[in-house]
Amino acid sequence: MYLIKCWIEHPVNKLDKTFDYMHNETIITGVRVIVDFNNRKLIGFVDSCEKIDNLIKLEEDLGYKLKPIEKILDKESLITKELFKLGKWMAKDTLSPTIACYQTMLPNKIKPSSNKEKLVYIKMVKINDNKEKLTIKQQAAFDYVKENGPISLTDLNKAFPNMSRALIKKNVIDVYEVLKSGSLKLNEVEKEEFLDLTTYQKEAMDKIVNSDKQTILLHGITGSGKTEIYLHLAKKIIEEGKQVLFLVPEISLTPLMVKRVRSRFLDDVAIYHSNLSSQEKYEQYRKVLKNKVKVVVGTRSAIFMPFSNLGLIILDEEHDLSYKQENTPIYHCRDIAIKRAKNFNCKVLLGSATPSLDSYARALRNVYELVELPFRINESLPTIEIVNISKSMRKKNSYMISDVLKEKIQDRLNKKQQIILLLNRRGFNTSLRCYNCNHVIMCPHCDIAMSYHHDIKMMKCHMCNAIKPVYVICPDCGLKNTFYGYGYGTQRLEKEVQTMFPNARILRMDSDTTRRKNSHEYIFNEFSKHNADILLGTQMISKGLDFPNVTLVGILNGDAGLSRLDYRSQELTFDLLVQASGRSGRSHLDGEVVIQVFDEDNHVIKSVLKQDYKGFFMSEMKYRKAGGYPPYNYLIALIFYGRKNDVVSEDAYNFISKLKGNFSILGPSDLLKLSDQYRYRIILKGKNLEEMKQAIRNVKDNIDIKSNLRIDVNPMILD
Ligand code: ADP
Ligand code: ZN
Fold first, then answer.
1. DSSP H or E stretch at residue 186
2. Cβ count near 140 (within 10 Å)
3. DSSP for 107-122, written as a single string
4. N or C: which end of the chain has fewer CB within 10 A?
């Protein structure tokens, strides 16, 4: 007999531990099994297996009888040894339940909580050695299999209806099952040659290759040729017989990047991101597990691919917020990348034109190697002009588009060049308000105003997606038809631009126009074929795009993000403005950028105008130091949430009363209600992250928490 320790998705209490079962043979780590848990059949994930010398004594020691494993679901481990250890490390690092980490690491179909039977298998047929007398029709069908086989049973039935059964009965063909594959269809790509690196690129590449640091920060301005360096490095690593992981923040927004990687490495590339179906994800996962691909291009979740021989991790746009997973286990992809690079003794290359302050600070402190590319390949940065929109409005200009921007748009339309307009807010109006009594239409589930969406003629909540009609009669003052729009989003902007330039062809890109699969790619393709003159949209259009014909970028409401109360809002605004500006004039045509703001004296706007990352970094670090914010201190945010206000608040106050250690504790603060959940937050701030984590564990394991608790170590956003 063997003692089998399993992780179980424990639906009742949140204890983070394994449970004991027994089996008459050994079971390997990382296999799913079915076990009886409080009279329910649940799926367990095998942690370890050891021989039992004396069952009676063991059961006496345990104080209960061991139950047998009921069924083993997998023939082989779903996970590599390295990933198995990583899961445990991750649970500690992020203060999450271990089983939640394994669930996040594995593709849907083989999550510890899912049953393998859901995988799609197809029936295949092939001929065997058995000789039987066949009718003419049967012979024809047999010959068809012989010539084309193995083929799927469905194909055989299509070509020769009602014939397969007889062939199977006469035992001249065999039927067997294979996992359905090939469902991920990628467009054909043409092979492209590697570009010869410029002197600057070569220097950067040498510095990366020869550095004795594990983590390298490549700070290169937009269009400085970072991607070409990534590709050269990947080639080198592949030639050494190793695998490369290429991470991008959001794959549907970077089809160009995927195309560029695939055009160099063709079939050696696997793609992994959240838009794939579960079956597709599983296939890609298997490909990597079986060592069939050399490069994986993917988003955050690709960091958990089962590599066996990883040689390099590239994290492009390392500052991007999408690298952070915001639900439990809350982790930052960069942290996992650095950990895995240690496991494989390989390098991590972080690349960005606007590195996160945390990474740049580490690079300056020599924790990371800093490599800089200060020039564009085409040697010309776009010129930026700041327009004060309140002054421009006083001159009776449109309140959305200043005369300066309008003239430049007209000029590009005349020259048949293209324009990108960024407005980081979707919908038509930000809110609707009664002109008589100022009643604002609020979300019934959240403490925020709903936005008006013109396409569906409804109010929509941008937090929980609830929709409701516009009131005809104001619920407060009872007057009829009194609601008017306030603030504008991309839908309203589209209408304004179309009225201003009736002949311009406009594409809009925001989360309302990109809900369907492949819609991002469609919009980018249309724009790159110049089937549209103006691409307008939210922050989606600010990232990674390389359209050579774009010579004007207009940013509306450029300082809107600064009104947020978050400690990181300056950094996020700087990133957005610089990244969006970087879309202009990337090729042989000179680029211009117009940024419309209310306050041109803000230090963020001034640094953007000078395109001065270091200047921004220095002034921002002073502010972070004064406030004791990261990177000067670590933060951990605890959010208690649930449907009952008093329960949630009691839990938060109870927790804080027991929390002790050498760090400051802020809160509990009462946050806005979201999706009917009341929320209270506690923040820990201090220099010793491990001590802060341990203090949380001590309280968490010793009190009874009735509401839900979300733990965010190193939170990116606090507002
Ligand atoms: P980044 O990733 O820093 O934004 P890219 O690698 O996309 O920069 O390069 C910007 C542009 O310059 C691209 O159009 C790319 O094809 C071109 N480019 C990059 N490196 C070279 C090179 N060595 N020779 C010629 N063109 C290059
Ligand atoms: Zn809502």
1. none
2. 13
3. -GGGSTTS-GGGS-EE
4. C
- Residue 544 confidence (pLDDT) above 80: no
Whole-angstrom distance, CA of residue 9 vs CA of residue 123: 33
CA distance 216 to 350: 6
Around Cβ 610, how many Cβ atoms within 10 Å? 10
Centre of ligand 1 from the C-alpha of residue 260, in Å:
11
ω into 630 cis (within 30 of 0): no
The band of 631, judged by pLDDT with boundaries at 50, 70 and 90, is: very high
Tell me if 254 CB under 6 Å of ligand 1: no
Residue 9: how many CB atoms within 10 A of its CB?
A: 17
pLDDT tens per residue across span 292-344: 899 999 999 999 999 999 999 999 999 999 999 998 899 999 999 999 999 99
> Is the CB of residue 8 less than 8 Å from the CB of residue 33?
no
Ligand 1 within 6 A of CB of 228:
yes
Classify strands 467-468 and 458-460 as parallel, antiparallel or unpaired.
antiparallel
Scanning 39-80, the segments in alpha helix (DSSP H) are 55-62
60 to 38, 63, 218, 457, 527: CA distances (angstroms):
20, 5, 59, 69, 72
Which residue, among 76, 255, 278, has the nearest Cα to 183 in the 3D structure? Answer: 278
**C-beta neighbour count of 522 within 10 angstroms:** 15
How far is the C-alpha of 542 from the C-alpha of 222, rounded, in Å? 11
Does the CB atom of residue 464 touch ligand 1 within 6 A? no
- Cα gap 374→613, rounded to integer Å: 10
| Tens of pLDDT, residues 13-55 | 467 889 999 999 999 999 989 999 888 888 889 999 999 999 9
Tokens of 13: 């209490």
Distant-in-sequence contacts of 129-132, Cβ < 8 A, 24+ apart: 130/170, 130/171, 130/172, 131/172, 132/170, 132/171, 132/172
pLDDT tens for 589-614 read: 889 999 999 999 999 999 999 989 99
- Model pLDDT, residue 188: 73
Distance CA 46, CA 16 (A): 14
Give pTM, 2 decimals.
0.85
Q: Which residues pair with 33 in a beta bridge?
A: 44, 72
Mean pLDDT of 173-178: 81
Q: Which amino acid does the sequence have at 65? A: K
CB 151 within 8 A of CB 124: yes
Question: How much distance in Å is there from the Cα of 450 to the middle of ligand 2?
Answer: 8
CA distance 505 to 584: 19
> Ligand 1: does its nearest atom lie under 6 Å from the Cβ of 175?
no
Neighbours of 121 (CB within 10 A): 11
Distance in angstroms (rounded) separating the CA atoms of residues 348 and 622: 28
Closest-CA residue to 699 (of 657, 671, 664, 668): 657
Residue 49 phi, psi dihedral angles, 5° rounding: -145, 125
Q: Is the CB of 374 under 6 A from ligand 1?
A: no
* 153 token code pair: 């049973």
Q: Which two tokens stand for residue 111?
A: 């999550």
- Ligand 1 pocket test, pick from 546, 584, 613 with the greatest ligand atom count within 8 Å of Cβ, gives 546
Phi-psi region of 524 (alpha: psi -120 to 50; beta: other; left: phi over 0): alpha
pLDDT, mean over the chain: 90
What was the pLDDT predicted at 117?
Answer: 41
Neighbours of 599 (CB within 10 A): 14
CB atoms within 10 A of CB 58: 15
Query: Which H/E stretch holds residue 33?
Result: strand 32-37
Write out pLDDT tens, residues 507-542: 999 888 887 777 888 898 899 999 999 999 998 888
Q: Which two tokens stand for residue 638?
A: 């605890």
Q: Quick: pLDDT tens for 224-238.
A: 999 999 999 999 999
pLDDT beyond 70 at 116: no
Helix axes 569-581, 613-627, angle to 10 degrees: 170
Provide, rounded to the nearest whole percent, the portion of the chain with pLDDT above 70: 95
Whole-angstrom CA distances from 520 to 249, 275, 507, 553 are 14, 11, 11, 19
